[in-house]
Amino acid sequence: CAPLGVRAVCQGATVTQELLKEGFHRDLLVKVELGAVGEDAEGCAVAVRTRLPPGIYVDPYELASLQQHNLTKVVLIPEVIDVEAPEYLATELLVLLHVEPDSRCSRCFRAALPVHGRYHRPAAETEEAVVVLRSPEVLVCCCEGGLSAECWVPAEVEAPCSGKPTGPCQWYSKKHKPAHEESILQVPVGLRQHSSLVCVVTLLATGLCSSLILAAVCKYGHFS
C-alpha cells in the first residue's frame, strides 16, 4: 500500500465544463481545480485535452484572431478545418486548451473557447440534435521538473510547453474527477416534412434576388 502522505498528495483534480450562450455559436468554459496536486504544479503550464465530436468545431480564423491578441492559447489537430462541412461529413477535432490561473482560487485554472455547432441532417420528429462533449483530460508541463512521480504519468502530447522558449518539454497527465461526465449541446435541426416548403421558398428568394440584381445592373451599370 502507498504511504498515507502519497495518497494525500495524489488527490484527484476536478474538471468542470459549461456551454455558455445559445444557438449555434457558444463559448465552452473549462474550469480545473488541482486540489492537493496544485502545490506540485506551481509555476507549470496547465492544459486540458479534449476531443470535440463531429457535431461541433472551432473556427481556426476566429481562433487566430484571439491568439493574436493573446486572449487564448489553443492547439488544434488537425489544423485545417472545413467550417462549412455538415456534421455527417465532418470528423472529430483534438483540442489542447491552455488554462490560466484563477485569481479567486490558488489551485484553480480556467479558460474559455469559442465553439460552433454544425448543421445536422433533417430529423423526422425532433427539432434538436444532441451533441455530447466528454470530460477533458488534465495535463501539466513543467520544464524545470518538480512533479511527483507517484501522482503524474507521462502523456504523449505534440505541443510545446506554453511560455517555455527552450525546446519541447514533457507533458504529464493526472486522473481527475469530472464534475459531470459529459456536457450536452442541443443544436436546432430542420424537419423532413418541411423539405419541400424550404426548397420552394429558397428558389423563389433566389430568383427574386437575382432579378433585382440584374435590374440594378441594367439600370445603373456602365457598359462600353
Automatic annotation (TrEMBL):
Key words of the record: Endoplasmic reticulum, Glycoprotein, GPI-anchor biosynthesis, Membrane, Transmembrane, Transmembrane helix
Subcellular location per the Swiss-Prot or TrEMBL entry: Endoplasmic reticulum membrane
Domain of life: Eukaryota
Membrane topology note: Single-pass membrane protein
Segments traversing the membrane: 195-218
InterPro entries (alphabetical): PIG-X/PBN1, PIGX
Xref: PANTHER family: PHOSPHATIDYLINOSITOL-GLYCAN BIOSYNTHESIS CLASS X PROTEIN
GO BP term, pick one: GPI anchor biosynthetic process
Pathway of action: Glycolipid biosynthesis; glycosylphosphatidylinositol-anchor biosynthesis
Name of this chain's protein: Phosphatidylinositol-glycan biosynthesis class X protein
Any one annotated GO CC term: endoplasmic reticulum membrane
Gene assigned in the entry: Pigx
Pfam families: PIG-X
Main location: endoplasmic reticulum
Similarity comment: Belongs to the PIGX family.
Annotated function: Stabilizing subunit of the glycosylphosphatidylinositol-mannosyltransferase I complex which catalyzes the transfer of the first mannose, via an alpha-1,4 bond from a dolichol-phosphate-mannose (Dol-P-Man) to the glucosaminyl acyl phosphatidylinositol (GlcN-(acyl)PI) intermediate to generate alpha-D-Man-(1->4)-alpha-D-GlcN-(1->6)-(1-radyl,2-acyl-sn-glycero-3-phospho)-2-acyl-inositol and participates in the sixth step of the glycosylphosphatidylinositol-anchor biosynthesis. Probably acts by stabilizing the mannosyltransferase PIGM.
